[in-house]
Amino acid sequence: MQLRRAGCLALGLVAGLWAGNAFAQTDRACRQALALGLDVSGSVDEGEYRLQLDGLAAALEQTEVLRALLALPDRPIEIAIYEWSGPSHQRLLQDWVKVTDRAVVAAITDRLRTTGRIKADPSTGLGAAMLFGQRLLSQRDCWTRTLDISGDGPANSGPRPQDVRYLSGFNGITINGLVIGAGDADTDLVAYYEELVIHGIGSFVERADDFTNYEDAMARKLLRELMGVVVSDAGQD
User: Fold this and answer.
1) Under 8 Å CB-to-CB from 79, ≥6 apart: which residues?
2) How far apart are alpha carbons 79 and 97 in whole angstroms?
3) What is the DSSP pairing of strand 32-39 with strand 77-84?
4) Which of 48, 78, 112, 148 could in theory staple to 211 by disulfide, Cβ–Cβ 3.0 to 4.6 A?
5) Residue 140 and residue 35 in contact, taking contact as beta carbons nearer than 8 Å
6) What is the pLDDT of residues 188-209, one digit of tens each?
7) What is the strand order of the sheet 32-39 is part of?
8) How far apart are CA 162 and CA 38, in angstroms?
């Protein structure tokens, strides 16, 4: 019920603001570029790997998320998806694609469900993952650009997230987080992401209790991001 209400609110905002000519940036056909980075470090086992990729696929197919994604097909969302672990491992699972209809979503979800795991650096290179996402987003010219990082632990290799998120390349990019689990005795993972990872006006952290809750947490986060792009652009002339 909460997702349904959120989805209806998102669609209402989109329809109302579009009808009122709230979007003035008509030179850009893309309303949001969304890069999603999935943590596949050594703390993620084979079953959790599948729950993460299949959970993202299922979240994209949820009715409210689909409606929000496809609300303005002539001003589409663009999506890219990658996995990350250590500083040397970032693998593009889905290159940039305009989400214009259900067939595009079906192609994305089929790709996710048929992607197999490969051997990779087991460490957690969160800062390097953020830099990879920034490079992806630098390829797009959309009304907003959002980097979405999922993770189940703090960085332990490569550049630190707090050292990269304020680099000039992140100007104009919002970084949101989806944390999986609560962390451990040494690290409150939500607090860690809030303090050191997320960036930009309106940035936030969503939490999944564990990988079995990943789908619903991802759906909540996607709806919030899709609503955010409407609200953030409403006042621009």
Assistant:
1) 34, 35, 36, 94, 96, 97, 99, 108
2) 6
3) parallel
4) 48
5) no
6) 999 999 999 999 999 999 999 9
7) 90-99, 77-84, 32-39, 144-151, 173-180, 205-208
8) 19
Task: Indicate left, alpha or beta for 158 from its phi (over 0: left) and psi (-120 to 50: alpha).
Answer: left
Region of 71 please: left (phi>0), alpha (psi -120 to 50) or beta. Answer: alpha
Half-sphere exposure of 169 (CA within 13 A, CB side): 15
The CA-CA-CA angle for residues 58, 59, 63, to 5°, reads: 95
| Whole-number Å distance between alpha carbons of 99 and 69 | 7
What span, in angstroms and rounded, lies between the C-alpha atoms of 109 and 105?
Answer: 6
Query: Residue 226: which of 5, 67, 18, 2 has the closest Cα?
Result: 67
Distance of alpha carbon 133 from alpha carbon 68, whole angstroms: 23
Question: Distance between CA 229 and CA 222 in Å, rounded?
Answer: 11
Q: Return the structure tokens found at 229.
A: 């792009």
Encode the chain in three state secondary structure: CHHHHHHHHHHHHHHHHHHCCCCCCCCCCCCEEEEEEEECCCCCCHHHHHHHHHHHHHHHHCHHHHHHHCCCCCCCEEEEEEEECCCCCEEEEEEEEEECCHHHHHHHHHHHHHCCCCCCCCCCCHHHHHHHHHHHHCCCCCCEEEEEEEECCCCCCCCCHHHHCCCHHHCCEEEEEEEECCECCCCEHHHHHHHHCCECCCCCEEEECCHHHHHHHHHHHHHHHHHHHHHHHHCCC
Backbone phi and psi for residue 174, each to the nearest 5 degrees, phi listed first: -95, 130
